[in-house]
Design goal:
15 helices, 15 strands, 337 residues, 5-stranded mixed β-sheet, 19% strand, 2 domains, Rossmann fold, alpha/beta, 39% helix, Udp-n-acetylmuramoylalanyl-d-glutamate--2,6- Diaminopimelate Ligase, Chain: A, domain 1
Length: 337
């Protein structure tokens, strides 16, 4: 059994996403996969056992039998942090080939990595200022680095540049994953929740993913040509513009968001019902709604099963599983046949 410790130098880089993608690949290769996410108790922000959304999500997609409390234990003894985590880890690692550990930041992980005897995968967002020297301090524990959220038009250049830099430092660049809108977006229901809005119709569509956003034009109604520029989108519109609302409904739209806490006219509501497009009635004007959406997108987490097919596709295309398996001491079913 091997512990794969996934860490980073900063938050919001996609650790959970990488954990999910690698775990699903290992499961498809008949590996017994566990998940472990130790959490440190904070007196200022008390934690409730069993409520971590990442742990709940991983338990579901990995079909784990262990309770969420064991998968995501809350460690309160900071003086013996590493030993406490090791003890909790022992409870979820039985019978597993690989346990994926969604770890603490790099600077807080040294003792934990040693205690678990883990191999370390570092996930970083796209940046020209990566701390290669700090990576080398991990020594033989370091498996490699993954760069995530790289602009699509820079993937090839970034791979060439950083694979050379890392190679010279004896570090493996295991993957360069392109930025993908589908992986970092909201469902209609989450959007309504963040906006503190009400879904007026087609509530069964609240789990649909919103892949893009558009604003209604401020001038004369431009019609469907304008709204057809983006697919699977949410359209933010003024409540008193039924002409724009109807035009948007003629195109690929996940939901309409109407400002001013307004209810649409019956014609719009009927058309939305026929097209199965939810309408969200939100408080505030267009500017306030846009600000709320931007805030929601900045805090988004990867915890939606509908995103897994796209994640699997990207991981398979842009991750070096051969080096990954070799570093973990695993044999792939594909190479053993």
């Amino acid at each position: 059994m091997v512990a794969l410790y996934v860490t980073s130098s900063q938050g919001g880089v996609g650790k959970t996403l990488i954990c999910a993608g690698l775990g699903k690949h290992l499961l498809s290769d008949d590996k017994k996969v566990g998940f472990f996410k130790p959490t440190i108790a904070d007196d200022k922000n008390p934690l409730t056992p069993g409520t971590d959304s990442d742990a709940v999500f991983m338990k579901h997609i990995f079909a784990l039998e262990e309770p969420v409390d064991n998968i995501c234990p809350i460690i309160s003894n900071r003086d013996n942090l590493a030993s406490g985590i090791k003890q909790a880890y022992a409870e979820v690692s039985q019978g597993k080939d690989v346990v994926i550990v969604e770890g603490l930041p790099i600077e807080a992980s040294g003792g934990i990595i040693e205690a678990l005897g883990a191999r370390v995968l570092i996930v970083e967002g796209y940046s020209n200022k990566l701390s290669i020297d700090s990576y080398k301090e991990l020594g033989e524990h370091l498996l490699g680095v993954v760069l995530n959220k790289v602009p699509k038009n820079k993937v090839e250049h970034v791979y060439g540049e950083f694979s050379t830099q890392f190679g010279q430092a004896g570090i493996k660049l295991l993957g360069v994953l392109p930025e993908d809108r589908v992986l970092f977006t909201l469902t209609v229901g989450e959007l309504a929740e963040h906006l503190q809005g009400e879904i007026l119709n087609c509530a069964e569509k609240s789990y649909e993913l919103v892949e893009d956003f558009m604003l209604g034009a401020t001038g004369v109604d431009p019609g469907p040509d304008y709204f057809s520029r983006k697919d699977n989108k949410a359209v933010v519109l003024r409540g008193e513009r039924p002409d724009m609302q109807l035009a948007a409904l003629q195109t690929s739209t996940r939901c309409l968001i109407l400002g001013g806490d307004m209810t649409p006219i019956s014609t719009v509501l009927s058309q939305a019902e026929n097209k199965e497009v939810p309408i969200i009635s939100a408080k505030g004007d267009t500017a306030a709604i846009v600000t709320a959406i931007e805030d929601a997108l900045s805090r988004i987490r990867f915890n939606q099963e509908k995103k897994l097919p796209r994640l699997t596709e990207l991981i398979e295309q842009h991750f070096d599983f051969s080096a990954f398996y070799q570093g973990l001491g695993l044999t792939s079913r594909a190479t053993s046949i």
